[in-house]
C-alpha cells in the first residue's frame, strides 16, 4: 500500500495523473491526496452546458474539467481535499461505496467531527453535504474518489454551478444539488494538513505509509495525457451528450426566442425568433444559418454577433443563447 500527495494544483494534470496510476499500477493499492486551484469538475456522462454557468466560467477563466467517473458536478479550490483509492475490485461489491467512505468518516471522527454516509455516495455533517464520491471499474481494478470540503469558498464557486435560465432536453446525467458545508465550521481548531494526516492514519492504521515516487519518464507520460485528453475542448465540452436548448430573453427592447440543437459541443441547428425591429438589425435567417457549426461557447457566439452589430446588442443577444 502506498500513498501520493500530488504536488500540482492543476485540475487537468491531476486527473491525468490519477488516470495514469489507475491504468499502470496494477499490483499496488494506492491512496492519492490532492487539491486543485479553483475549478469545476463534471461527471463523465454530463452535459457541461446544463451544469455550469458558461458565461461566468468563460469570463472568469475557471477551468472546467471532465473526469472519468460518473455522477455530478462539483467545485474544487485549495480548501477542498480530494482523495482517490485505487485497489483490486471485488465483483461481489459492485458499486459499494461503504469500504471507501468508512475510513474517511473514521478520519473525521478522529478529529472530533461526527459525519455520516448519506444516500449512495455522499458524506454529510448534520444533514449538509461535505463529500461527494464516484467510482469507475476497469480490468479488475477500482478507482474510487471523493471530495472533502474543508474550508472551500462555497459561495463564489457555487455561483459557477448555476446555469442560465434556459430549458435543456437531453439524456445526460444530471447533478443532485445539495446544501453544502465546510468541515472547518465543526472544528475548534484543525488544518487541512491535519485532515490529510488523519486520512492516512485511518486508511493505513499502524502500518507506515510508503510514499509513491514516479520516474521522469512516467511524469512525462502524465503530461502527455493531460495535453492529449484532459485539457482538450473536445473532452471537456465536446463530450456532452447531444441536447436541445430553449430560452426566451430580451435584446434591444425586443423579445427573442432561441432554440438550439447542440451535438459534440457544436451548434447543429439554430432558430431565432424576434419581432420586426430587431429582425432588421440581426437578419435572423442569415444568423441561423451561419451559427451552425460554431462551438457553443459564450465567446464564440458573442464574437459572431459583434461582427455585425453594436457590442451591447451583441451581448444581450448572446445572453439569450445561454
Ligand atoms: N467539492 C464538493 N464536495 C461535495 N459536494 C459538492 C462539492 N461541490 C459541489 N457540491 C455539491 O454536490 C452537488 C453534486 O452532487 P452529485 O451527487 O450530483 O455529484 C457528486 O457529488 C460527484 C462527486 C465527484 C467526486 C470526484 C472526486 C475527485 S474529482 S470529482 C452539487 O450540486 C453541490 O450541491
From TrEMBL:
Pfam family, one: LplA-B_cat
CDD domains per record: LplA
Metabolic or biological pathway, per its Swiss-Prot or TrEMBL entry: Protein modification; protein lipoylation via exogenous pathway; protein N(6)-(lipoyl)lysine from lipoate: step 2/2
Keyword Ligase: yes
GO molecular function, one term: lipoate-protein ligase activity
Xref: Gene3D superfamilies: Bira Bifunctional Protein, Domain 2 (3.30.930.10), CO dehydrogenase flavoprotein, C-terminal domain (3.30.390.50)
Source superkingdom: Bacteria
EC id: 6.3.1.20
Class in the EC hierarchy, top level: ligase
All copies of domain BPL/LPL catalytic, residue ranges: 25-211
Keywords, alphabetical: Ligase
NCBIfam families per the UniProt record, alphabetical: lipoyltrans
Protein name per its UniProtKB record: Lipoate--protein ligase
Organism of origin: Anaerovorax odorimutans
